[in-house]
Amino acid sequence: MKTLIRSNRLFIFSTPFFALSLLVFAPSSSAQTFRGKDGKEYSLQLNTITTAVPLLMIAPDARASAMGDAGVASTPDANSIHWNPAKLAFINDDVGFSVSYTPWLRALVTDINLAYLSGYKKVAKDQVLGATLLYFSLGDITFTDENANVIGDFNPNEFAIDVAYARKLSDKISGGLALRYIYSNLTGRIFVQGAESKPGQSVAADVSVYYEDGVVIGEKDAVLALGMNISNIGNKISYTETAERDFIPINLRLGASLKVDIDKYNTIAIIADFNKLLVPTPPVYDTINGTIKYGKDPERSVVSGMLGSFSDAPGAYRDPQQGIYVEEPGVFKEEMREINFSIGLEYWYDKQFAIRAGYFNEHPTKGNRRYFTLGAGLRYNVFGLDFAYLIPTTQRNPLENTLRFTLLFDFEGFKEQGKDAPIE
User: What average pLDDT score do residues 142-151 get?
Assistant: First the structure.
């Protein structure tokens, strides 16, 4: 792996690390054009927002993954902490946990994988505690210097540990809080131009709200749910003592779901999520003097970055004939392009077998992740199994053939089995 310093930052180049940059962003190579008010044709400027530790934005469980990565307002389960910690307060069972596994970016490499362990325990009628461990391995890497001399071998890895608390504020509303420790060891403390690299570390929090209420639609019983989660509110990360610090993926997630009981055995739900990163949008720099030409300075505090993320898009496009940038009046259009949306469907038969499908959309200038998802679920007494499969809308996409597996355990099932067991 080659390393170099640019603009006082550490940059790392290798196949796995290139793959890491595609964890959340997979930009398209096709040009996106539009016709301006002057009648000329302009190309949309690719302006993807990147952050440190993008693994925090990967859907870790198979159920939500099968519904287009939508989960902020879906019915609660053992994986709710990632999507909306407040949902835990509405969970029916007393205790449960799940284990998920994802072979990641199989189209590029074979030894990158994501593992997720999540569990919860009711501590009172209206209060629930939960915890998770998210672990990401980037496989084995051989480090080399600029002269291709081998420095050593290393297995880069990242993990995040969560502790969550959820409480009902009323019969219909709950609030949740999650505290997160983030550790990212990408370099194994190698020296770069005399400076020792180090693992990046951060502490973050999620603040969430969940609303659930019974409604009637066409004489059918239904449940309407709304959710909001502001996740990864935390300090920036640095991988060297001298380098500038990078934002972690602070994110706003809003969503809704509607679950309808068709009859005694059949249930169907529709789910939608909207996401926006609350970090600065990269500006357009002047190629001559390096000053910011369009947009705002991205080097600012966490609070300023969050608040300014709604109005800092450059709103600039490139004139392919003259090779210059043209500013669009206002930045609202580009800000709207930074909102990703997910939609999903979930069908249950007799609360034992589920079929799921979904779609995820990201604007071409902001990463161009667009894919369909499919999945299935099975529940039997004390355990459940979920499966998800990702289908990109473009060929040769690094996310193609992504599989996810989740195994869930319901300890209430053990109790029910004990009740039903014959007494000798």
Answer: 74
pTM, entire model: 0.85
By the 8 A CB rule, do 280 and 246 touch? Answer: no
What is the 8-class DSSP label of residue 197?
B
Across 26-50, b (16+ Cβ under 10 Å) vs e yields: bbbeeeeeeeeeeeeebebbbbbbe
Are 50 and 277 within 8 A, CB to CB?
Answer: no
CB 100 within 8 A of CB 62: yes
Instruction: Tokens 């002057």: give the residue.
Output: 38
As a whole number, the mean pLDDT across the chain is: 84
Rounded to 5 degrees, what angle do the CA atoms 50, 53, 58 make?
A: 90
- Tokens 């926006």 sit at which residue? 276
Query: Within 10 A of 171 (CB to CB), how many other CB atoms are there?
Result: 10
Nearest one of 275, 187, 261 to 227, comparing CA atoms: 275
Q: How far apart are CA 182 and CA 359, in angstroms?
A: 29
Mean pLDDT of 4-8: 32
pLDDT at 354: 97
What's the Rg (C-alpha) of the chain? 23
- The pLDDT of residue 151 is 73
Separation CA 87–CA 78 (nearest Å): 10
- Asked if 224 contacts 212 with a C-beta cutoff of 8 angstroms, the reply is yes
**What Cα–Cα distance (Å) separates residue 28 from each residue in 106, 306, 320, 399?**
19, 27, 18, 13
Measure the CA–CA gap between 168 and 172, rounded to whole angstroms.
Answer: 8
* Among 58, 27, 47, residue whose Cα is nearest residue 390: 58
State which amino acid sits at residue 172.
K
- The four Cα atoms 12, 158, 298, 370 give a dihedral, to 10 degrees, of 90
The CA distance from 277 to 279, in Å, is 6
> Which residue in 243, 247, 305 sits closest to 7, CA to CA?
243
Distance CA 290, CA 377 (A): 53
Q: Provide the pLDDT for residue 255.
A: 98
Longest alpha-carbon distance in the chain? 89
Is residue 14 pLDDT above 80, yes or no? Answer: no
Structure tokens at 288: 């001559």
Cβ distance 399 to 369 under 8 Å? yes
* Residue 34 confidence class, pLDDT cut points 50, 70, 90: low
* Dist. CA 343–CA 339, nearest whole Å: 13
Question: Which helix or strand (DSSP H or E) is residue 108 part of?
Answer: none
